[in-house]
Amino acid sequence: MTENEIGKIVVDCSVKLHMELGPGLLESVYEVLLSHRLQSAGLHVERQVHIPIEYDGIRFDEGFRADLMVGGKVLLELKSVERTLKVHQKQVLTYLKLTGLRLGYLLNFGESLMKDGISRVINGTVE
Length: 127
Prior knowledge:
Number of domains: 1
Order of helices and strands: HHEEEHEEE
Strand content: 25-35%
Largest sheet: 6 strands, mixed
């Protein structure tokens, strides 16, 4: 399955979950439930994935954690805030660079409409 095929399933599942539950729940609730939905759709999902960082000959795993990694190809960072900031998009970009992945999503379940809470991040650009 390609990154874009996974991404379509991620967006569909996120929108359906948001329509059913609405905004305002804790990020951890959306993480568990989205993970379950994606697994039910046949995707392999990892939660709270350690992202190691190497600098000046030092490697450590404690630096970062991605909320979800889907199919080993798509990284998801979930938020449940009134609005996301540029720093949240930069966070996804950093995770993509450190993992070598090409596609990530910043999903903000705090928006009134989920479509307004989806940022697709590709190779250092935000759509």
